[in-house]
Automatic annotation (TrEMBL):
Pathway: Carotenoid biosynthesis; phytoene biosynthesis. The keyword Cell wall biogenesis/degradation does not apply. Its cofactor is Mn(2+); Mg(2+); ATP. InterPro entries: Isoprenoid_synthase_dom_sf, Squ/phyt_synthse, Squalene/phytoene_synthase_CS, Trans_IPPS_bact-type, Trans_IPPS_HH. GO terms for biological process: carotenoid biosynthetic process. This is Phytoene/squalene synthase family protein. The lineage of its organism: Bacteria, Pseudomonadati, Pseudomonadota, Alphaproteobacteria, Rhodobacterales. Signal peptide: none annotated. Keywords: Carotenoid biosynthesis, Manganese, Transferase. It comes from the Bacteria. The keyword Manganese applies. GO terms for molecular function: geranylgeranyl diphosphate synthase activity; squalene synthase [NAD(P)H] activity. Belongs to the phytoene/squalene synthase family.
């Protein structure tokens, strides 16, 4: 399905760019691991282009064009694009899922801020839950309950990332904590950006975000039992490794401004061993009722798309409007450079 040289390139990109995902992927069966590495490499490199580049709007527009080419069966001649196109064809990947990621990256390119936790969750749904839903597709899982819990896990992971990177993001001029939390805490978000400090109100916001992530990690666990038996250990590992980042943040007194929480290699190995045990236990336990809980409102359209229960036309309109806005911004930016 995927050219071996292209797969090797994707594997190397993930090995150096995402230690946590690479570690967890080692516990997946090859039939899932290989396309998952290719998928994650495509998504990760697209995210890096927007996150680290000087021309963010142009990077998103380029990604839009790359998706069009991949779905037309004539991908751009790069290892990640060729591998992604192979995935699209082999697994009949619903286009709404990578387009959700595209939308989230466009919000990043615009420098959007999020008024409420629900808006932060909507952002997390696009940049993380969309990938979780695509992972289910790679496992040939289209069950709505399993998809809903995979989306829960994606949001939990992204909230953990946001909690870990508060200081790093602030120094780059970005804020992902809800604006109404800043207002409740009496903290001026622009003043925080100018001089990010791990004050007590900021630490409390980090703790609050981690509490929401923990709630979703627990909801997500029931969905692992609905996955293929040989894929459960890898997903347990991902859940445990990302949740461990949250524990490190708590151990640091919820200071993610002056320090960055990390999990070491030995800790990852221990968590992978725990994942093996939990996977075996999960196989013997009856399914929990929370498996059938409805999806989060912010992720419901991803579940619909992955389960093939019908398209969401309104999302297409919104995405087109968003791309048009970015194109205008890109043209304006080029005009200023040429002036």
């Amino acid at each position: 399905m995927i050219d071996p040289d292209d797969l090797a390139y994707c594997r190397d990109a993930i090995r150096t760019g995402s230690y946590s995902f690479h570690a967890a992927s080692r516990l997946l069966p090859a039939r899932v691991r290989d396309p998952a590495l290719a998928l994650y490499a495509f998504c990760r490199l697209a995210d890096d282009a927007v996150d680290e580049g000087d021309h963010k709007a142009r990077a998103v527009l380029t990604l839009r064009d790359r998706l069009k080419l991949a779905y037309a069966g004539c991908p751009r001649n790069t290892p990640t694009d060729r591998a992604f196109a192979a995935i699209v064809e082999e697994f009949e990947m619903p286009r709404a899922l990578p387009e959700a990621l595209l939308e989230g990256l466009a919000w990043d390119a615009r420098g959007d801020r999020y008024a409420t936790l629900s808006e932060v969750t909507s952002y997390s749904a696009r940049v993380a839950s969309a990938v979780g839903a695509m992972m289910c597709v790679l496992m040939r899982v289209r069950d709505r309950d399993a998809l809903a819990r995979a989306c829960d896990l994606g949001v939990a992971m992204q909230l953990t990332n946001i909690a870990r990177d508060v200081g790093e993001d602030a120094r780059a001029g970005r804020l992902y904590l809800p604006m109404d939390w800043f207002a409740e805490a009496g903290v001026d978000p622009d003043a925080f950006l100018r001089d990010p400090l791990p004050t007590d109100p900021v630490r409390r916001m980090v703790a609050r975000l981690l509490a929401e992530a923990r709630r979703l990690y627990l909801r997500a666990e029931s969905g692992i039992a609905a996955l293929p038996v040989d894929a459960r250990t890898g997903i347990w590992a991902a859940r445990l490794i990302y949740a461990a980042i949250g524990r490190e943040i708590r151990r640091n007194g919820h200071d993610s401004v002056s320090m960055r929480a990390r999990t070491g290699s030995l800790q990852k190995i221990a968590l992978m061993g725990e994942a093996v045990v939990l996977s075996a236990t999960t196989s013997m336990m009856p399914r929990h009722a929370v498996l059938h809980a409805p999806p989060l409102p912010e992720t419901a359209y991803l579940v619909d798309a992955a389960a093939r229960t019908g398209p969401a036309p309104q999302r297409t309109v919104e995405l087109l409007d968003l791309m048009a806005d970015l194109a205008r911004r890109d043209r304006a930016g080029r005009g200023r450079i040429g002036a």
